[in-house]
Amino acid sequence: MKAAYIERTGAPDVIAYGSLPDPNIGPNQVLVKMGAVSVNPIDTYIRNGANYWELPNPFVIGCDIAGTIISVGSAVNGLSVGQRVWGSNQGLLGRQGTFSELCAIDQQWLYPTPEGVRDADVAASALVGITAHLGLFGHAQLKPGEIVFVRGGVGGVGSMVVQMAKAIGATVIATAGGPEKAAICRQLGADHVVDYRAADVSEAVRLIAPGGVNVFWETLREPDFELAVALMGQRGRMVLMAGRDARPPFPVGPFYVKGCSLHGFAMFKASADHQRACAVDINHWFASNQLRSVIDRTLPLSQAAEAHRLQEAHTIRKESQLRGKLVLVPEA
Question: Is the link from the previous residue into 58 a cis peptide, with omega within 30 of 0?
Fold first, then answer.
């Protein structure tokens, strides 16, 4: 099989594209013929050496996948040959990744793909969708009628937060950089969009929600706690999804006087049962046209190194204008 893999950590140039042996499946695994995969920032961190576990060698990169089952292990239940599936949480905790034509994946990390939904769309929404669901409903306990603020409503996770919050009846305030991204936010369902290049975010949100927001979703690698605490209402909840190396100042007094709470979590540490519960809702929203992926571009699997360069330019160096996820597909 063809795969994008590394034999040592480092810059995107360490990613090789070539032939590897077809994987063998265990009793609880299925063999998936990959239809699409997507790139996440965590993929680039792992490739660059930020690992807390040993990597297989060679190590196939990537967390997300969508495709078709071509064989099943002897102990597999509920999945069958020919079924389309999607999943995430691969390439983590020592597991092989997904950037290969064939992937051996434990059944607990796979979910049926809704009829009529493309592999590219569910692959692009896998990790980011599960992350958004865990944060909004598992941690922040978002309720209908509440107000959510999300920084970066066009980003991978941000676009999922916008749509999921709208799906349950919340009011969504999102930021975007420029009129094109603002238009995408509105198409996704954001009730209010603040162009942070043209307006003061704090002033704009105070006008929209004078009593404060109920949930503040921070996407920055350097969280702005001063802004968040100032904009949250009584018993506001702040969700963090990035910033492993961040050490920003924290306004303790205003935070506890308002009775606020702070929620940080790593998606890949959630149990298989918790992630499956997220997938059930994600599938329902896809099937009912309440959820869609925002894809910037689709590349062939052989361009995995270029995809990592583009992702790093966007996430770390803030040099790109990506509008959504990077998706890769097998060579034609």
Answer: yes
pTM higher than the cut 0.90: yes
For CATH 3.90.180.10, the residue range(s) in the chain are 2-125+293-329
Reported confidence tier of residue 250, pLDDT bands at 50, 70, 90: very high
* Spatial distance between the Cα atoms of 174 and 165, rounded to a whole number of angstroms: 11
Q: Are 1 and 20 in contact (CB under 8 A)?
A: yes
The residues near 130 (Cβ < 8 Å, ≥ 6 apart) are: 88, 89, 267, 270, 275, 278, 279, 282
Angstrom CA distances, 3 to 6, 171, 303, 304, 307, stand at 10, 43, 11, 9, 14
pLDDT tens digits along 211-224: 999 999 998 888 99
Tell me the CATH number for domain 2-125+293-329: 3.90.180.10
Helix (H, G, I), strand (E, B) or coil at 85: strand
pLDDT (tens digit, 9 = 90+) per residue, 164-219? 999 999 999 999 999 999 999 999 999 999 999 999 999 999 999 999 999 999 98
Q: Give the homologous superfamily in CATH for domain 128-267.
A: NAD(P)-binding Rossmann-like Domain (3.40.50.720)
